[in-house]
Amino acid sequence: MSKEEEAVRYIRDRLREGVSQERIIEELARIGWDYRTLLGFIEMAKAPLFSGDSPTPQMAAAGQWQSSEGKKTENKKTKAVIGGIALAAILIAGGGYAYEKFTGPTPPEVLQKTMMEMTTVKSFSFSLDGTLETPTSSPATSARSATVTLSGDFSFQNPQNSAYRLTIKGNMGVGTSFPLVVDSEIISSDKFLYLKINPGTSIGPISFNMIANQWIKIDLSSDLAKTLFLSGLTIQVPTTTLSLTPEKTTKVKDFVRNASLFKDVESLPAETVDGVNTYHYSFKPDIVALQKLALNIGSVVGVSSTSLPIASSTNAFGSIYVNTRGEIWIGKSDFLIRKLLISDIRGNAMKLAITNYNNTPEILVPFNAKPLQDVLGSLFGGAMVGK
Fold it and tell me: Do 139 and 226 belong together in one domain?
């Protein structure tokens, strides 16, 4: 007997015991059955072909059951025919959900396929909204909170010259004496970084409006190799650039394909996201696997493990993952992530939407960008720029 048949018989027995449909769905959903599939199973369990119930007074009154022995055999055949017709109707109208469960991939299979398919993506667009609440050790100090919104496009058509365009808006360090307000745009292409700071960007009382609306061109091979001295504050900017050889690209893809970042996966009702039919699951992030993946990729691309945002229960990055659950929506036709949601009871949350797979707008660099050194020289006469 297949697991689907066992599920239908189990539902039939529970219904006979007087258990509500809602309770039965709840029981079976906990062990991985899809909600809509369970609705189809319930209809099957109620059908005469499966139920084996005695005739009801209504059936007898309608002449569907006769008491003589000779007519019982005929009635059984009639019931079988009626049951078969009912079953066919169920399969056509609502049992398609059950059929999908019979023949479709399991949640682990879908997630494994997704990790593989994501490594084949050449470009995509995304939007991310995040909120983070970090409690302080002192009762007299208010909690530090942050909100950030990111959106943009990534292109990996040329692995040795990956390009991206980002818009960043955020309010970080709320509750501190030096909150950071960010409103900026970034474009990266051909080993150059282009930065535009929009009005309103500030660090505490320090405003950056004096250089707002100007695209700044940063040469990743020279400008960022220097230390900038701004208002007596030394800022060491990392100079690492991501330039992957085919061999390194293969290693990174292998790490991603073999990563298992999801625990305690449960099926949720399937949904449509931006017109795409999706598999819908809830899960718990696997922090250990996430850290391992970050370290493995960092070792290949040359990023030190000390600069990676490793999650733990004691830092801000980890607080959004520890003791959380997430939801993920995966396209049924292409196994690509369409939406991801991670949240916890403290209000920390991250919502990611991905669109335009392999069909992103062209990433163009600004024609009127000024070199970083020129911008700093115009502000501080060159005296504040480290040599």
Answer: yes
Distance separating the N- and C-terminal Cα atoms of the chain: 77
Residue 158 lies in a domain: no
CA–CA dist 44, 47 (Å, integer): 5
Are 75 and 129 members of one domain? Answer: no
Number of domains observed in the structure of the chain: 2
- Residues 135 and 242 both lie in one domain: yes
Residue 147 host element (H or E): strand 144-155
245 plus 351 within the same structural domain = yes
Give tens-digit pLDDT for 67-104.
444 445 555 555 555 655 555 554 444 444 444 444 56
Tokens standing for residue 146:
């942050």
pLDDT digit string (tens) for 337-374? 999 998 877 778 889 999 999 998 888 889 889 988 88
pTM, entire model: 0.63
Distances (CA, A) of 263 to 193, 285, 337, 346: 38, 6, 17, 21
Please indicate, yes or no, if residue 200 is contained in any of the structural domains. Answer: no
Give the Cα separation of 256 and 77 in Å (integer).
57
| Residue 255: how many other CB atoms lie within 10 Å | 19
Q: For residue 100, which of 22, 40, 47, 26 has the smallest C-alpha distance?
A: 40
Among candidates 312, 328, 342, 323, which has minimal Cα distance to 265? 328
Task: Quote the CA–CA distance of 364 and 306 in Å, as a whole number.
Answer: 33
Q: Give the number of other Cβ atoms within 10 Å of residue 309's Cβ.
A: 10
Same domain for 59 and 116: no
CA distances (Å), origin 137, targets 115, 134, 204, 269: 39, 10, 22, 41
Q: Please check whether residues 129 and 7 belong to one and the same domain.
A: no
Same domain, 243 and 130: yes
- CB-count exposure of residue 360 (10 Å: 0-12, 13-18, 19+): buried
Q: Are residues 137 and 51 in the same domain?
A: no
Which DSSP state fits 208? -
Domain limits for position 81: 3-104
Q: Kindly give the interhelix angle for 69-93 and 96-103, rounded to the nearest 10 degrees.
A: 80
The predicted model gives 293-314 an average pLDDT of 62
